[in-house]
Write a structure and sequence with these properties.
9-stranded mixed beta sheet; alpha/beta; about 400 residues
């Protein structure tokens, strides 16, 4: 895939700008927003904040289309922060055990806000019940349903919720119903093995074929399980406002499930390196960072400040950032990307100390934890500066 990086060459960096710096190609970002919205097929799309981590960027997405409604957070403190910043219809995508933040959430809900907490076990439900009583507050709950599939002894998916049957879902829903301070507001069925697993990795032809086959085999089972859970809960008298599914990597297939009311999406807005390796879609790379060359330790090697922004997940080359401008740069195999310095090898490029090298991160929002602002570039001009969570003085994990 051709990199959309020319708007970020060294000529566009204003004189005196401090590096390292994080950049957003606004033109590419807006196109990604439009493309993602076009895939909704009548459903709404909830923005996964873990992949964004910037209030102005979240607002830009919401303003771009009425398809985008609501936020999917990763932390109760984050949910409180975003509510206080003026957002509403917030769902926390993971169970949490934080009495101070949850007490605030219970009180915010009682005062008219809507923050939904995730549960998948009776212990979590009982914990939230105790907090709601103590705080004289209220909790909206969403039940996380496991969408993993099995092929013999192979577990295809992630280890999230223990709820993988209709019977278990109904049992937990009945438990929730016994408490006056809790309301089952929705269910989530996240098909991580479709949304989060690449199937076009270079030099992995056989693995790519296997993953594609397993994805295709999984989709029908995922849709069936999610529909069965929703139907069973309806028969039990639960009126669900939310049936959430998918992620950026599965929008097309999740949108075909009639039981789903909304789809989650996040990483596709920035389109990090991992998103180059999906067969069924491509978005435009939109988020980059620039590091200054501070050393020339040997011919054809240029050492930058910082750069060790390794993505989470299983260790491998696919989690490493990559230099993309000037083109042709390569990390050194025995050093990689370092916390305080990163050497880059170029064969036919001559750089000076002080010149920038531009990189892409492997994953989306994690890179925002390392920068206080995102510099917005449009038509080779710097048009705005967006603060990140870190720039706002926030740290949620």
């Amino acid at each position: 895939m051709k990199e959309e990086v020319m708007v970020l060459d060294s000529n566009v960096l204003p004189e005196g700008l401090s590096l390292p710096a994080l950049f957003l190609n606004v033109n590419a970002f807006d196109e990604n927003c439009e493309m993602i919205a076009s895939k909704a097929q009548g459903k709404t799309i909830r923005i996964a904040t873990k992949s964004i981590r910037s209030i102005p960027v979240l607002q830009r997405i919401l303003d771009s289309s009425s398809v985008f409604q609501g936020l999917l957070c990763y932390s109760p403190d984050e949910a409180v922060y975003l509510t206080e910043a003026g957002f509403d219809d917030i769902m926390i995508g993971y169970p949490c055990w934080n009495e101070q933040a949850l007490t605030k959430i219970a009180k915010l809900n009682a005062s008219g806000h809507q923050i939904t907490c995730m549960v998948d076990a009776e212990e979590q439900v009982e914990y939230l019940h105790r907090i709601s009583e103590k705080a004289e507050g209220f909790f909206y709950l969403c039940m996380d349903i496991d969408m993993s599939t099995t092929f013999g002894s192979l577990h295809f998916g992630v280890r999230r919720s223990p709820i993988n049957s209709v019977r278990e879902a109904v049992r937990l829903a009945r438990k929730i119903k016994t408490y006056s301070g809790l309301k089952l507001h929705g269910v989530m069925g996240y098909e991580a093995q479709i949304a989060g697993v690449t199937d076009r990795m270079p030099a992995n032809r056989i693995k790519n074929q296997v993953v594609s086959f397993l994805k295709e085999r999984s989709i029908n089972e995922i849709h069936t399980r999610r529909k069965q859970v929703v139907q069973a809960l309806a028969e039990e008298g639960f009126d669900l406002s939310i049936v959430n599914g998918g992620g950026t990597g599965s929008i097309d297939s999740t949108a075909l499930d009639d039981s789903v009311t909304e789809i989650a999406a996040g990483s596709g807005f920035y389109a990090p390196l991992l998103f180059d390796y999906y067969q069924d879609f491509q978005y435009k790379p939109a988020l980059f960072y620039a590091l200054p060359v501070v050393r020339k330790p040997a011919p054809n090697i240029y050492t930058c400040t910082s750069g060790g922004f390794i993505a989470s997940g299983p260790h491998g080359k696919d989690k490493m950032p990559q230099p993309i401008y000037p083109p042709g740069g390569k990390l050194l195999p025995f050093e990689g990307a370092g916390e305080v310095q990163t050497p880059i090898h170029y064969e036919d490029v001559s750089l000076n100390i002080g010149d920038p090298i531009i990189f892409r991160a492997a994953k989306a929002g994690e890179i925002c934890e390392r920068f206080q602002e995102i510099i917005c570039v449009e038509d080779k001009r710097i048009v705005d500066r967006y603060s990140t969570y870190r720039g706002d003085g926030q740290c949620f994990l």
